Amino acid sequence: MVFVALVALASGGDMLADLAHGADRAHLLQEGLLLALALMILLWLWRDHRSQRRALVALQQELEQIRSRPEPESAQVLSVRQHFSAAINDQFGRWQLTPSEAEVGLMLLKGYSLKEVAMLRGTAERTIRQQASAIYQKSGVSGRHSFAAWFLEDLLTPQ
């Protein structure tokens, strides 16, 4: 955004200087088109940035709401949750996931999209994709659904 703003400023300044020196219309039109294009791109980038910022705030609020939910009253549910979390962490250790991969893995298991994980972690989506691929490779699964199924399959057997 800064680069495009600098292009717009330079183009506007050049156009004013050309006007003062009596440049021909074709050159002024060319400068005007460049200025208009730079301003449109700047506006588009600014709007996209605002949209992503709003989405990030919404995700952070959703995550905070989830974290602030009261713990289940049932001791059995709490115990199962703690054992399941420990089992996930143990398995992540067996797969030798890095701390970042483990964090991404947990967010994927919770159902966040790659884009949402990237926003919450403040990293590029491409980085999250690479980490997810490393997780899938280390765990020997083919993708996100297989990864989640690896942990849930044995828990969801019919009675």
Q: Which descriptors would you attach to this protein?
A:
79% helix; Rossmann fold; 7 helices; elongated; 159 residues; mainly alpha
Provide a count of the helices: 7
- CATH topology-level fold name of the largest domain: Rossmann fold
CATH superfamily of the largest domain, by name, is: Response regulator
Domain count, please report it: 2
Helix-strand sequence: HHHHHHH
Mean pLDDT: 87
- The radius of gyration computed from the alpha-carbon positions, rounded to a whole number of angstroms, is 25 Å
Could you tell me the number of beta strands? Answer: 0
Distance between the termini: 58 Å
Indicate the structural class.
mainly alpha
CATH architecture of the largest domain: 3-Layer(aba) Sandwich
Low-confidence stretches: none
Percentage of residues assigned to helices: over 70%
Portion in strands: under 5%
- Main sheet specs: none
Give the overall shape, derived from the CA principal axes.
elongated
CATH class of the largest domain: Alpha Beta
Summary, kept brief:
The protein has helices spanning 2-20, 25-68, 75-94, 99-109, 114-121, 125-139, 144-152.
